[in-house]
């Protein structure tokens, strides 16, 4: 690190001040939210009083992780154009979520996406199967986020990894445990506003440097590093691999439990629809910002300095903040990165806890006969357990290569959750057996194939060659899940579920009876 | 007052038309997004040089095309919201009215 003269890696007075302001503000909100979060509808769905704009911000807050902010800016700074390919993949799932899932999800469910499947299929088997898919997605995403959190905070603040993981885990538990969905939503909104405004300020500072001309920015980048930074490099190796990852990203977004859960915080399907539009706009804008930040860092900081701090380029945005805005701005962006990490893990934990309490405890173990008070109590116990588990996982996986787990989380979401949702919305003869078979097939294929893929089998388990040639299993596992849903429904039809399809349609399209 | 269940009073034809219409719009927009995104990926995989084509001294075709995919995602969701807010919601109200009338 000697060749880079930077304050990154040391806790500075400004970063700590900004961070404390964020913590105090969010915990104050949590305190007020805790007074309200007594009922199930408050705890899981913020009393359904979130507006379209607020939910749009909260959705983007749940989605824009520190890994995508720092990681994509870093990727762009070191590889130029290739970083853009990556961010596009993470955006294109949002329109799909809008067109196929958002409104039926809001109209048919109550608190979790599993409710939609349980609407006309046999409640206990489908809740068990779908909770499996939901929890697996949350589990893999959470590991990736916790390990990323520890590593990034260690780099930014110079804090020991273990301490960083414990702090993130504990603050996040406080938000969710006491403040439920109300506090979690406000944490997301504040974080999204901070991240978007911090990014915008950074882009303005870059643009001042280049006379508000992208042409000048690209000119200087290609003068120093050659035209290759403006061209596709080696990121897309095999076409099949690229398409498979594309399928995971495109359809996985519409199967992420913490994203889907947000739709129950708004009043109706119309508001849900509007919130996806805002979210898509914010996230698209954010990726254009990170692209610009990446190129700005490439020219202003220089690739050598960025790579010297971290070979993956993760500190590019931090170095740029310091170079353009000095210690104060660096402190601000460092605090924003910390807030970003906290918010994403809080959203994931709440989604996991809701599945455990609402779908498994209330829906399966108590046959839907538990009281609301008992359910919320179990939700809080689940939050605490998941939070502790997240901390332990963060510690266990320290130093491990967990980058593939984000791809895996998206693959499981696209294979287990997405096909089940689409088929239950669109296909009258979808049966309980078919749905369960589809979810199990999707999950097993996604997880199984990634274990024998180059990413795990070769890079982590050090075998010479991979049994399955693709890095992301989605092309096989999504197709497999749809096929299993079809075959299962043909083998064991469910006349009762089919007979309720008309009733489901009325609620789905007209919103009659929606909770 | 007729004690018929509201569902029986519903204008079936209108409702079916609404459902069919909704999926026509949803699936066309989904197809447009998939075409743009997977098209982009396949060009990257099979003809990356196409995106390296210079348009200006320090600009390649790939950058505006990439940005356009991002903008397209936002525009398509915007089109859907606009359509749903105007056309779809109005038809929903008409069907709901048919349920209340009888």
Order of helices and strands of chain B: HHHH
Write down the overall mean pLDDT of chain B: 90
Helical proportion of chain A, percent range: over 70%
Return Rg of chain B in Å.
Answer: 22 Å
Question: Mind telling me which CATH architecture of chain A this is?
Answer: Up-down Bundle
Q: How widely separated are the two ends of chain A?
A: 56 Å
Biggest sheet descriptor of chain B: none
Note the gap between the termini of chain B.
8 Å
Helix amount of chain B, in percent?
Answer: over 70%
Total strands of chain A: the figure is 0
Give the assembly state of these chains: heterodimer
Which stretches of chain A are low in confidence, meaning pLDDT under 50 for 5 or more residues running? none
Level-1 CATH class name of chain A: Mainly Alpha
Q: Please, how many domains of chain B? A: 1
Count of β-strands of chain B: 0
Query: Would you tell me the structural class of the helices and strands of chain A?
Result: mainly alpha
Mean residue pLDDT of chain A: 93
β-strand amount of chain A = under 5%
Structural class of chain B: mainly alpha
- Can you tell me the number of structural domains of chain A? 1
Structure description:
The complex is a heterodimer of chains A (515) and B (102). Chain A is mainly α and 515 residues long. Chain A has helices at residues 13-36, 40-45, 52-63, 66-79, 82-91, 93-108, 114-118, 123-157, 161-209, 214-225, 239-252, 257-261, 269-300, 303-309, 316-365, 372-396, 404-426, 432-451, 454-458, 474-491, 495-499, 501-510. With 102 residues, chain B is mostly helical. Chain B has one domain (19-101). Helices cover 82% and strands 0% of the residues of chain B. In chain B, α2 packs antiparallel against α4. The longest helix of chain B is centred in the C-terminal third of the chain and has 40 residues, at 62-101. At the A-B interface, α5, α6, α10, α11 and α13 of A face α2, α3 and α4 of B.
List keywords for this structure.
heterodimer, A: 515 residues, mainly alpha, Sodium/glucose cotransporter, 22 helices, 77% helix, B: 102 residues, elongated
